[in-house]
Amino acid sequence: MTVKRRTLRPDFPYWLVAAILIAIAVAVLIATSGLYSQVFATVAKGVGVTVRVTLIGYALASALGLAVALMGLSRSTVISQIARFYIEIVRGVPMLVLLFWIAFVGAPAMVALWNVLTQPLQALGLLGEASVRDFSLEWRAIIALTIGYSAFIAEIFRAGIQSVEVGQVEAAKALGLGRYRRFRHVVWPQAFRTILPPYSNDFVAMVKDSSLVSVLGVADITQMGKIYASGSFRFFETYSIVAYIYLILTIGLSLALRALERRMRFNTTTAPEH
Description:
- The chain has one domain (34-263): MetI-like (MetI-like fold).
- 77% of the residues lie in helices and 0% in strands.
- The chain has helices at residues 14-32, 34-43, 47-72, 77-91, 95-117, 119-123, 137-162, 166-174, 179-209, 221-232, 235-269.
- Helix 1 (14-32) packs across helix 2, helix 2 crosses helix 11 (235-269) and helix 3 crosses helix 7.
- It is flat and about 65 Å long.
C-alpha cells in the first residue's frame, strides 16, 4: 500500500498567509499591551503625512515623467537631448542628497526668483515679499520626491510607448487620427499594460522613500517614531511598530496593484476579436 505524499502548491501564496498571521499577532499585541498601544497611537499620527506626501509626490512625478518621456521621443534633437540630460543628471543623484539640495538650495532659489518676478506687484503693494520660511518643509520634500522619481518614471513611460508596434501607429495615421488621438486611443492603452508593473513598483518604492522626509523634520511615520524613541528610549518597540505600519501599507498596496495587473491581463486575453 502506497501513501501519497502531499506536495506544496507552487501557486499558493504561503508567504501571504504567514504575513497575515504575523500581522494579526502584532495587532493583538498592540490591542492588549499598554506600551505597544501607546507607541502605535503616537506613530500612527504620521500616517496621514506619509500618505499625503506619497500621493501628491507620485501624481506630480507621473505628470512630469510623462512630459519628459514625450520630450525624449521628440523628433527634435534639442528637445530629446534636454530630456536625456534631465534624466541622467537626476538619476545620478541619491534621493537623500536631492532632498537636502531642494530643501536648502532649491527652495531659497525659487523664493528669490519669485520675489524678482513679482517685484512690480510688490512695489504696488499688491503682493508681499515671500520668505523662505513660507515654503513649508513638507512641500520641499514633495518637490524633491517629484523630481527624483520623475526621471525613473520617464524611462518607464518611454519604454512602454516604444513597445507599441509601429504598424499600429501607421494604421491610426491611415485612418486620419491626429497625433493626440493616436496617443490617446491607440498608443497609450497598449503601452499602459507594459508600463503598469514597473510603474506600480515605483509607487510602492515611494511609500518607503517617503520616510526620508523625516530628515527635514516632517512629521511622517518615521519622524513620529524617532521623536517617541528619543524621549522614551523604547527603540525596539518603536521601530518595530514603524516597520509594521510600513509593511501594512506596502504589502496592501502591492496586493491591490497585482490584482489590477491580473484584471488587465484577463480583460486583454478574453477580449473578443473583431
